[in-house]
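User: Predict structure, ligand calcium ion.
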Amino acid sequence: MKNLGIKYISILLAIIYTSCNNGIDTTSIGIEDTYTVPRLQKLILSTGAAGESFKWEIISKNGETSILSEGRECIFIAEEVGTYSLVLTINDNGEEVIQTSAIIVLTEEIEYKSSMTKVIEFNPAPGQFINDLPEYEEGDTKERIRQKTEQYLLNGSMVSLGSFGGYIVVGFDHSILNKEGKDFFLGSNAFTGSAEPGTVSVSIDRNNNSIADDEWYELAGSEYNKSETIKNYQVTYYRPEEGKTPIPGKNGVVDVEYIKWEDNMGGTGFIEQNSFSNHSLDYWPKWSSNNSLTFSGTLLASNYTIKSNGQYFLDKYEWGYADNYANKDTENNSFDISWAVNGNGEKVELRCIDFIKVSTALLQNCGQIGETSTEFLGAKDLNL
Ligand SMILES: [Ca+2]
Ligand SMILES: [Ca+2]
Ligand SMILES: [Ca+2]
Ligand SMILES: [Ca+2]
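Assistant: Predicted complex:
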């Protein structure tokens, strides 16, 4: 009897122990009771708790409930100040645990600007305005060039991204919300017959390190699904040998075999060198010691035709590209975060973004006006 009694107690303890382990230990949920965050700044929460399903709901001050996430992670962001209730429901083996937090959203200490406030990265491909926009000075490092690029843009001057794949990444002093319709404006130097389209991508600083090392989502413009558009195109440019003998072309082309490139489809060609515009004849970024530079992205079909007078006409694409329409055309220079797609081309729903990237989307030479290169003249949040 005595032995049986001990056995019985052991089984009972085992049941209690097992049920405790199967139940959710609320200390491991990892969510605080209260959070304080300025408006238009992300609060990224995640739980390590065991469970099969998760639901994060937010209840606004006027009682509206919306689902923020059905995964382990949730991004909260609010435009309006006030107190919000966050409800996390975890389902584990049929057991439901509910954790509630209060999120207090405050006004920002320094009033936000609608215009971009920083250049995160400037990595242009070779091109005629490289070392000019911005101007390279002896000894400039990549970081110094990034600072200059930022100064140029904050002062209303433009920069050039060079040939295919060259890019810039910019950020703001707040996150841009994805509201109904267009969300941000991008400036350039396009005009009728001078469209040099750049692809636009966006990302969220999901790991909150202020670096654009997070997943990029391309905004799928009018050309995205066309058969002539090449995704994951990659080009490697090779530094021209010093003192190489130029092979002159027509109309001010100094060297038709100036910068050699090879792509990932077996293709090869050259960026031509010209002296038409008042620019440095050095196309290779002088702050780079690399002998080759590789860029990748979405390649659009060539957009030029040659008029009877010999002039190149670079036609615009329908919608969704930078440096495609003149700045005064606000509508066609404005972009909707809802156009975002992931690397598989699937639509993604983004509540907000932190970084915008613009990359030259064409690889072509246009005689006297040189290689096609996207210019960038700032970014503006349309929802602030
Ligand atoms: Ca939108
Ligand atoms: Ca990041
Ligand atoms: Ca250009
Ligand atoms: Ca341009």
